[in-house]
Amino acid sequence: MPLIALTGGIASGKSTIASRLAELGAVVVDADQIVRDVQSAGSPVLHAIAAEFGDRMLLADGSLDRAALGGRVFGDDAALARLNDIVHPAVKQESARRFAAAFAADPSAVVVYDVPLLVEARVDDPWDLIIVADAPAELRIRRLVELRGMTEEAARARVASQVSDDERRAIADVVIDTSGTLEQTQQQVDLAWERVAVPD
Question: Quick one: pLDDT at residue 198?
Answer without folding.
Answer: 60
